[in-house]
Amino acid sequence: TDATFKLDGVSVTRTKNKIDDILDGAEIELKSDLASSAIISSQRSETAIKSTVNSLISSLNEFKAEIDRLTFIDVEGDENGPLSMDPAVTSLKTSFKRLSIRPITGYGENPIYLSQLGVKTDSTGNYFLDENTFAKTISANPTAFSALKDDNISTNNASISASKPTYTTIEAATYDVTAESDGSYTIKKSGSSDAAITLLTIPQATGGVKFTSTQFPGLSIESPDANPSSFKLFVGDSFSKKVSNLMSEMLDLNSSVYRSNEAYKATKEDIEERLEKLEIREKLITTQYTERFGEMEKSMTQFNSTKTMLENFIEAWKKQK
User: Fold this and answer.
1) Which of 5, 10, 74, 275 could form a disulfide with 159 if both were Cys (CB 3.0 to 4.6 A apart)?
2) Is there a contact between 164 and 219 (Cβ–Cβ < 8 Å)?
C-alpha cells in the first residue's frame, strides 16, 4: 500500500517509503507503521556555525583595516592615506559601516541583526565575537545564523515550499500571499502600498497546486493542498550576498569608485606624458648648454693662449728696455 501520513497537519501520500520531496535537503524513511505521532527535528553544528562567524569577523576586520589605511587622515603630520580625500572611497567606507548595522530581512517574521548573532564592534570599530550573545542565540534560534551565508526563500507554512533560480529578481522582504474570495491568490510585499499581483495557479497531478508569476519569472510556490489558506513568503539575501553586491556595485562601470579610478588613470597618463615631454626638453636643453659650454671653453682656451702670448711679449719688451 502507499505510504500515508500527515506532516504538520497536511496529508501526504507517496508510493514509496523513502520520501525526499517534502523537506529540502532531507529524506524521510518510514521503517514501520506508526501507532502514534513522531517528531522530526534537526540542528546545525555549533562548531561549524562558530567557525563561519569567526571567518566573517576576520574578513570584516581585514576589509576595514585596508579601507581605514587608504582613507587615513594624519591631523598632526603629512602621512595621509593615498585615498584620504577621495569622496568615492569615503562613500564606500560609509556604505560598508551601514551594511553591518542594517537588519537582514526575509528570514522570518522578524529581522536579524549581526549584533544578535554575537558580531559586535569594540571602541575602535573592530569586530569581535560576543560569546554570551552567540550562545544565547544559538540556543534559542540556531537557524538565524543561516542569514550569514545562505540565501533564503521559504514560507511560514511548513507544507508549502518555494524556490527560484538565480536569475529571478525579487526584492528581499516578507510577502503576503492572500487567498482571495474569488478563489484567486495574490502576492504583495508586507506593509507596502503597492497593488497586489495576481499569481498564476497550476493544478498538480498530486492534487496540490503550483503558484507562479510573470512579474517574477522562475518563482515557484508549491502546496500539497489545492486551496491553501493565506500564508507568508520570505525572501532573504544573506549578509555574504549583500557584501558581494556592495563589491559588485563598487566595480560597476557606473559607480563613483570606478569613475574615480578612471580619473586617476587619466591623470596618471597625463602626468606621464608631461614627464616624457619634460625629459625630451631636458635633453635638448642639456645638449644646447653642453654645446655652448664647449664653445665657451674653446674661447677661454684661446683667450688664455692670447693672454700668455701678450704676457710673454711684454716681458720680452721689458728686457729690451
Assistant:
1) 10
2) yes
Average pLDDT value for residue range 52-57: 91
How far apart CA 248 and CA 259 sit, in angstroms, is: 14
Three cell numbers at 35?
501507532
Q: Hey, how many other C-beta atoms are within 10 angstroms of the C-beta on 223?
A: 24
3-state secondary structure of 128: strand
**CA angle (55 as vertex; 50, 58 as ends), nearest 5:** 125
Give the other-Cβ count within 10 Å of 186's Cβ.
Answer: 17
Which pTM was predicted? Answer: 0.65
Cα 321 to Cα 317: distance, rounded to the nearest angstrom: 7
Number of H helices and number of E strands within the chain?
5, 15
Q: Cell 506508526, residue?
A: 34
Angle between helix 256-320 and helix 239-251 axes, rounded to 10 deg: 40
- Please, what is the angle between helix 46-70 and helix 87-101, to 10°? 160
First CA to last CA distance, the chain: 153
233-282 per-position pLDDT tens digit: 999 999 988 888 887 776 665 656 566 666 667 777 777 778 888 888 88
Per-residue pLDDT, 61: 92
Q: What angle do CA 203, 236, 59 make, to 5 degrees?
A: 145
Query: Which residues have a Cβ under 8 Å from the Cβ of 143 and sit 6 or more positions away?
Result: 44, 107
User: Alpha-carbon distance 182 to 285, whole Å?
Assistant: 91
| Residue among 164, 215, 212, 161 nearest 185 (CA) | 212
CB 12 within 8 A of CB 22: yes
Closest CA to 138 of 110, 122, 124, 118: 118
Nearest-angstrom CA–CA distance, 121 and 171: 29
